[in-house]
C-alpha cells in the first residue's frame, strides 16, 4: 500500500513539475514576443503597437533584442529611435521610464544627444533627470557630448536648464567649449561667442578654444577666428582740392578772336565767297 502511495505521490510531483516548466516556458516565450513587438513598434514608429505592448504588460525597462551588438532597454530605445510621441504617451499615462545608472556608459538621456532634437530633450527634461551625470571613462556630461557630436540645437537647453556651462571640466580635463573647437562645431562656437565667453580660457588639459581654432584650415573657422580681431581703421587720405572745370576764364577783350576768322579761305563754305553782285538777292 505504501509503495502505491509513494508512486502516486511521485506521479503527481512529476506532473506538477512538468506543468511548472511549461508555464515558465510560456512566460519566457511571452516576454520574448513582447520584446520583439516593442522593437518592431520602435523601428516602424508604430505608436499604436507600442501602446499595445504597454497594455499587454510589457516591461518598459526590459531588454530589447540586440541592435548592432548592443543591448538597449525599451526605454533607451525611445531615445535611440527618436520617438517623442511614445514618450508623450508614457507621460500622459504617468509611467516613469527613465532609469539612470552611473555604471553604464549610456542611458535614455545620453542616447538622445546624437539625435539633436530639442523636442525629444525637452520631454526628457520633464522627468527631472540628473543632468550632471558623467558618462564613460572620460566622464563627459551631456553638454560635453553635445559639443563633440555637434548637437548644436541642444546647446541652449543644456546651457540654461542643466546647470552645466561652457567651462565645465570633465574627468579628462576637456570643457564643452574646447570640445566644440576640436570637433569643428561652428554653430555651437557662435552661440558661445554671443554669450561673450572667454575663448582664451584654459581647460584642464591646458588647451584653449582659440588656440585649437588657430590651427584649423577650414575657411569658415579661419573667418570665425578673424572675427575676434579688432577691425583696422583705414587712414584718411588728404582731401584733394576740388577743381571746377566749368569755371569761366576771364580773357582780355583784345585777345578775343572770332572763330570764323581762323578758318582758311578754301575751307569756307562756297556761299561765304559770293559777293553781293552775284547773290540771288542782288538787283
Would you give an account of this structure?
The protein has helices at 2-44, 47-55, 74-80, 84-92, 108-112, 118-125, 142-148, 155-161, 176-182, 186-194, 209-213, 219-226, 270-273. The chain has 283 residues and is an all-alpha fold. The chain has a domain at 131-231: Alpha Horseshoe (Serine Threonine Protein Phosphatase 5, Tetratricopeptide repeat), CATH 1.25.40.20. The chain is elongated. It starts with a helix and ends in a 10-residue tail after the last helix.
Key attributes of the depicted protein:
283 residues, mainly alpha, Serine Threonine Protein Phosphatase 5, Tetratricopeptide repeat, elongated
The CATH homologous superfamily of one domain: Ankyrin repeat-containing domain
Assembly state: single chain
CATH fold-level topology of one domain? Serine Threonine Protein Phosphatase 5, Tetratricopeptide repeat
Radius of gyration: 43 Å
Q: How does the SSE layout of this entry go?
A:
Layout: H1 2-44, H2 47-55, H3 74-80, H4 84-92, H5 108-112, H6 118-125, H7 142-148, H8 155-161, H9 176-182, H10 186-194, H11 209-213, H12 219-226, H13 270-273
Helix pairs in contact: 1-2, 7-9
Question: Quick gist of this model?
Answer:
This protein is 45% helix and 0% strand. With 283 residues, it is an all-alpha fold.
Amino acid at each position: 500500500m505504501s509503495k502505491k502511495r509513494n508512486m502516486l505521490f511521485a506521479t503527481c510531483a512529476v506532473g506538477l513539475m512538468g506543468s511548472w516548466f511549461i508555464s515558465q516556458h510560456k512566460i519566457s516565450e511571452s516576454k520574448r514576443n513582447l520584446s520583439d513587438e516593442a522593437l518592431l513598434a520602435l523601428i516602424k514608429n508604430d505608436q499604436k503597437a507600442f501602446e499595445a505592448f504597454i497594455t499587454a504588460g510589457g516591461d518598459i525597462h526590459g531588454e530589447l533584442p540586440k541592435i548592432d551588438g548592443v543591448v538597449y532597454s525599451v526605454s533607451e530605445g525611445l531615445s535611440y529611435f527618436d520617438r517623442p510621441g511614445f514618450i508623450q504617451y508614457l507621460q500622459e499615462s504617468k509611467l516613469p521610464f527613465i532609469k539612470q545608472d552611473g555604471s553604464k556608459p549610456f542611458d535614455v538621456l545620453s542616447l538622445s544627444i546624437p539625435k539633436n532634437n530639442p523636442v525629444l530633450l525637452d520631454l526628457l527634461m520633464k522627468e527631472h533627470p540628473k543632468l550632471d551625470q558623467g558618462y564613460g571613462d572620460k566622464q563627459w556630461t551631456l553638454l560635453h557630448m553635445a559639443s563633440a557630436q555637434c548637437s548644436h540645437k541642444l546647446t541652449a537647453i543644456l546651457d540654461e536648464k542643466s546647470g552645466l556651462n561652457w567651462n565645465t571640466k570633465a574627468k579628462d580635463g576637456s570643457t564643452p567649449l574646447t570640445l566644440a573647437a576640436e570637433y569643428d562645431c561652428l554653430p555651437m562656437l557662435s552661440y558661445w561667442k554671443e554669450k561673450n565667453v572667454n575663448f582664451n580660457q584654459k581647460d584642464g588639459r591646458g588647451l584653449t578654444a582659440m588656440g585649437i581654432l588657430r590651427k584649423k584650415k577650414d575657411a569658415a573657422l579661419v573667418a570665425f577666428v578673424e572675427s575676434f580681431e579688432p577691425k583696422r581703421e583705414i587712414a584718411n587720405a588728404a582731401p584733394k582740392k576740388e577743381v571746377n572745370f566749368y569755371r569761366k576764364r576771364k580773357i582780355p577783350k583784345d585777345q578775343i578772336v572770332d572763330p570764323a576768322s581762323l578758318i582758311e579761305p578754301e575751307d569756307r563754305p562756297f556761299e561765304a565767297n559770293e559777293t553781293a553782285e552775284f547773290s540771288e538777292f542782288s538787283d
